[in-house]
Amino acid sequence: VQLQASGGGLVQPGDSLRLSCVVSGLTSDYDGIGWFRQAPGKEREGVSCIDSSDGTTFYEDSVKGRFTISRDNAKNTVYLQMNSLKPEDTAVYYCAALHVGRHCVVVVSFWDPTDFKSWGQGTLVTVSS
Fold it and tell me: In angstroms, rounded to a whole number, what is the distance separating the alpha carbons of residues 107 and 36?
């Protein structure tokens, strides 16, 4: 499974961005897609996850109500719509594919990177006035 993330950029506080993650490979080879982010000087943290089986979505509290994860199966793409962006959202954002047998409902408790089998290259989001 290969992933290609895009859509980052420089925006002002309160603006919106939509990140895209194009997933190449068989859908049977992964059980969900997660979005992580890593801010300068900080550890990578999980942000959102969408399960492949039923489309159930999960969000960290810091983005709940502002970010929306979705998928377009016809385009093999997972999106992260980010609204009401804040300076603290500044980070490199990565998408990653879950191993078969791993599901978002469990993974989001600890966001262990080893639960994910493949990673995209990251896209930089900068929120600044």
Answer: 12
